[in-house]
Amino acid sequence: MTPLRQLFSLLILTIFLVQCGTSPKGDSAFFEILIKADQKTYTPLDTLHLAVLTKLTLKADSIQWSAQSHSMGTVQVEGETLSLNDWPMGNHKLQALVYTTEGPKKISKEFTVVAAQKPELYTYTILERFPHDINAYTQGLEFDGDDLYESTGQYGQSSLRKLDLIQGKVLRNEPLDHSFFAEGLTVFDNKIIQLTWRENTGLVYNKETLELIDQFQYDKSLQGWGLCNDGTLLYKSDGTQKIWRIDPKTYKELGYIEVYTDKLKIDQINELEWVDGKIYANIYQKDAIAIVDPQSGAVEGVINLKGLQKEVTQHQKLDVLNGIAYNGIPGELFITGKNWDQIFKLKVDKKQ
Length: 352
Known about the structure:
This protein is mainly β. It has 1 helix and 27 strands. Helices cover 5% and strands 50% of the residues. A hairpin with a 2-residue loop joins strand 9 and strand 10. The longest helix has 17 residues, at 3-19. The relative contact order is 0.13.
């Protein structure tokens, strides 16, 4: 067959496919979802007004709307409006099943929900300073009553520690296997749960003896970064904008939230701490802690910790802020970092 005849045959085939309701581009060749007053992002205060644009001659007899959320599942939409009240932050998907004389056509459109309000800004005052092992590559820090536990990282140097805060002494030190790079930790009931970075493994210890009693594998989360709990669930960061909810009995992931301000997503979520109903999330390589709503993922506040790293001994191994502990006194936090020689007790206040 000559090139001219091949081109003519391909043209005839394309026309035939379109007329028969089958297009190389799929159902989106016939219809497109429109959001009236279309925006780049939306907030939980918005209501989406939906419509379907007909792109070819095929007509829509009726439309069945639904929306998919990473934490809410599939939601059926009544009519042509979708209220975003109580919707979590992040990317979601609208779906329309368009019924026609040539069968149903399924089309979709993604949309992003961000926080409705700007985060409040917080500043800090140093109340006390406590000595800290300058060789500790701190990955997690958490109080259990008066006891303070720490997870330190690096291959060949990772450990689980129990600390004497006042004197800066290591009371117990349990080294990890050299194949593990330790990350965040949390104390839950009579156990200490510790993450590893890229090894896809969580480690479970007896709180009193620091004996390793169990291990578990991550599910869909990419890596292990930070960890905290609310007394019912565990919350795990993986280095993205996601914070995963985990069942503390089975260690199965139950879903996640995505962390967003009113403008953008916040990724590289690292060390986590549960503080009075909120998740305090350290942003890796930033002198800041985000105060996150654990239900929606909205950033409600940002603690600016700029200048704190300059208060410690400056040396070659000195690295970023990483370590948040809360002892139950409102407005106070204990903060340290990787290879910092001090733990700071801070008073945190809204910026005036």
